[in-house]
Amino acid sequence: MPGKAANLATHVRWGRGAIRAPSCRSLRLTLVTETFPPEVNGVARTVGRWLEAFRQRGHQVEVIRPRQAAEQPAPECVPGVPLPFYPEVCLGLAWPDQLGALLGRVKPDVVHLVTEGPLGWAALLAAKRLRLPMVSSFHTLFDDYLRHYGLGWLAPPALAYLRWFHNQTALTLAPSASARQRLLERGFRRVEIWSRGVDSRSFHPRFRDPELRRSLGLETNDPLLLYVGRLAPEKNLLALIEAFGRLRQHLGTPAGDKLRLALVGGGPLAGLLRTRQHPGVLLPGVQVGEALARWYASADVFAFPSLSETFGNVLLEAQASALPVVAFDCPALRERVRHGQDGLLVPQGDLAPSLLVLCRDSIYRRRLGTAAWHKALTQDWEPIFDALEERYYQIVVSSQLSVVRKEH
Fold it and tell me: Is the pLDDT confidence value at 10 over 80?
């Protein structure tokens, strides 16, 4: 889109001459996604927030997705098959004609394609035939992820497919400026920013739980390091575990022996990590709701080794819980963390020295954590959804004007 990069979180102008569509009526919105709550991942949680926000605003919302375990059959819930190397992710199976019949009955004002798998592909072709306005959102660097599963040879065709898919839609929404720039450099067109927020009531320092800490053998001033996210190769977890081992050696006895690293989440590496039983490494499994908030608030440092993020939703949750973040200095995380102000960004190499600084200096650690908390209080979801809602209206008006021009 011409003009400066548009940012959905801050209501900046949507390109030159953008139509300012009034929020004058309820929209019919169809969301197409291959991941959905109660699945636990960043995309599913964003989808859940989206659904809640737009239904509360009075819009008519339908979600087309794979049917989950024990669910009754329904037209909008299609069969799904798990990815062989990533069984927690299900691919939806549907034909364009099937989804065309469904979309033809619903007649949505906007179809929002969240994922690019078989279900997204079928929905794209169906909506295209029906000339329905489409928006897509980009969440995951699948072409990069393939390299972590020994499928790097698939990365070029995967990127070509993703570029084709997103360029069929009126707009592609990227979660960060760095993700947007990356897509533009790879030939994606009409890319704008749809940022992310955090519920600072659900994630808050008040959830700190002394009993949880005592159950881990920690006293008041003993630091607990925390990672939250998928236990998967693309998250670079082995680099964190190795850094943690070096950190324990640096601290020596007894401080090093008491140090704990909690890896909260599930995924393909969970079994391997349990088998290896790294000293001091805890595997609490998947945590949700208030239980997850307690883990965040009961920790002292959020350690995040990923190099493949498009945004980093968990960083906002950690900051809302008053945790300083220690992460590698890469573009998406640089947008979330201010080095030396609310966390520490490390040149790609070893996290251990920066973790050591925060483990030894509780005053510095708490100062960074307090700054992170204040920053998170400004990252509310509502302005983000306000701007996305306005963008939907603009796309509807633009589509209607296009139809009028063709008729005349």
Answer: no
**What mean pLDDT comes out for the span 73-83?**
83
Query: For residues 286 and 297, what is the distance between their CA atoms, to the nearest angstrom?
Result: 16
Same domain, 320 and 339: yes
Closest CA to 110 of 51, 172, 170: 170
Q: How far apart are CA 181 and CA 174, in angstroms?
A: 9
**Residue 2 maps to a domain:** no
| Gap between the Cα atoms of 394 and 21, Å rounded | 5
pLDDT > 90? residue 144: no
What is the rounded distance in angstroms from the CA atom of residue 260 to the CA atom of residue 278? Answer: 11
Tokens representing 331 are: 């573009």
The rounded distance, in Å, linking the Cα atoms of 73 and 85 is 26
Residue 277 has pLDDT above 90, yes or no: no
Q: Give the CATH number, domain containing residue 43.
A: 3.40.50.2000
Statement to judge: residues 174 and 246 lie in one domain = no
pLDDT recorded at residue 403: 63
Q: Which residues contact 82 (CB under 8 A, 6 or more apart)?
A: 88, 89, 90, 91
Q: Strand order of the sheet with strand 134-137? A: 77-78, 60-66, 28-32, 110-113, 134-137, 171-174, 191-193
Number of domains in the chain: 2
Residue 276 to residue 272: CA distance in whole angstroms = 6
Question: Does pLDDT of 17 surpass 80?
Answer: no
Q: Do 227 and 372 fall into the same domain?
A: yes
Q: Do 249 and 116 belong together in one domain?
A: no
CB 227 within 8 A of CB 237: yes
How many DSSP H helices and E strands does the chain contain? 16, 15
Could you tell me the residue range of the domain that residue 88 belongs to? 28-197+381-407
**pTM assigned to the model:** 0.88
Query: Which amino acid is residue 47, in one-letter code?
Result: V
Distance CA 205, CA 92 (A): 39
Q: What would the DSSP string read from start to end of 342-400? A: TEEEE-SS-SHHHHHHHHH-HHHHHHHHHHHHHHHTT--HHHHHHHHHHHHHHHHHHHH
Tell me, yes or no, whether 266 lies in a domain: yes
DSSP 64: E
